[in-house]
Amino acid sequence: MGAMKDIREIRSAVQKALFDAGYGDYAALQSGRVVEKAVDNDATVAGDGLVHPEQRDRYYQYLRAPRPSILPVMRFERLDRDRLDLDKIMVGQPVTDWPDDNLDDTETANVFIGGTINVACLKARVQSRLTYRSFRRNIEGQNILNTVAAMTAERARYDMELVAMRGDTSLSGSDKVSVLLKKMDGIAKQCESSKIVSAGGANLDETYFDEAFISLPDEAKADPDLSWVGSPNSRVIWNKLMRNKVGANADQAQRGDYRLGPHGFRWIETPAVPSNIATTISGGSPGFHRASEGGPYRITTAAKNIRFNINSLGNSVDIDLSGGKADGKWTALQIAKRINDGLVADATYGATYGAVASADSEGHLTVQSIANNTPIIVVAGSSASAVAAVKMTAGTYNGAATGGTSRKGSYILLANPMNFVFAMVDSIRAYTKFFPEKDYFGIYQYQEVDFKVEDADKVVKISNFLCQ
Fold this sequence. Notes:
Blueprint: H1 2-20, H2 26-30, H3 33-41, H4 53-63, E1 75-79, E2 83-87, E3 116-120, E4 122-131, H5 132-137, H6 143-166, H7 176-181, H8 187-190, E5 195-198, H9 206-215, E6 227-230, H10 232-242, H11 248-255, E7 266-269, E8 277-280, E9 288-294, E10 297-300, E11 305-310, E12 319-320, E13 327-330, H12 332-345, E14 357-359, E15 364-368, E16 376-380, E17 395-397, E18 405-415, E19 420-425, E20 429-435, E21 440-453, E22 460-466
Parallel strand pairs: 1-19, 5-22, 6-7
Antiparallel strand pairs: 2-3, 4-21, 6-18, 8-18, 9-15, 10-13, 11-12, 11-16, 14-15, 16-17, 18-22, 19-21, 20-21
């Protein structure tokens, strides 16, 4: 009886935490109908669980709160259903004519519209878990639920931004980031038909900003809301370019102020724009291999060893990735450290090879040789090989003397951010569910979203430049 009372108390606290974080109506959640709904049929979102309008509005405000992000400045549309045609608002043709006096003139106001955008929202689920033990033993007590709910909401906001910028239905990976992104095409993919200014693998400089502005349609050049949308690394590069110059841009660059960008247009900085895109360069590059999926990676006694042959020095000794545990899950960064430590301890390699392995910004394990035009060979362990466990493929990965590949590429968009549409069905549902067989609470939220570019002709993309 005591345990069941604890579970009821915890469930009530979970539901209240959802309410406090803006997820739902506490009174409806407290009734228990939502939990029963989740247990009976948690594959659907109809019926109970509908978030109270006040809490729904608070969640929308949170999604679009001012921060380095594209979401707050996009055109935000709250829909009453998942499929809808929205009027275009980016005026691209004349709206003024010369009517004759005392004549029944033909109505021409439809030139404001210029067509519609078809929005088809897809259902997304946000979920988190909290174990019974964590709740009972945590020093925060019931406040831990508020902390978990807030952290989940923050990650969900970033997930939406990733989809908005980087969604790509052509992706085929099975890691969590690829699964998130391959459901719909985001802004960058939809802008592939836009005007492109390619840096050809060169470093970013003022020339490409000038070319981007020149490439805009004439009617868009006078738009006071034109903005540069790029990664934090791109903004840092711009500040570096300005520091040795004179004027307002230089003064702001000295202060690290990112609000004013090239040609006086504002920067919109978002970490959802990657700075690790593989980009062809004129110079050389080292041999490189990236795991097909991000961590954590499960390492067991049956799959724990890996070897490398770098710069044709011969196979390294077996490098144990297990950390001394018979069965454990480790991040890419933890695995990379064990690889580097193993190479440093190997008499054939030593300290020069202490930075061969690393983790990229998406949590994938990567390895590369230490000089241009030199190979790295991923070799199975002599026993209990872990190559497959860390989602790598045994084989030779050559570098290049010229025409190599850099993984520091990025892109910048020049556009009015109202050209980018963030559509969301105006109904959010939240559920809690206790899993007694696994001893944890599940917290689930369902929402339906879509992202569209209204007019790709009014977007210019600077691509194939290096953030270094």
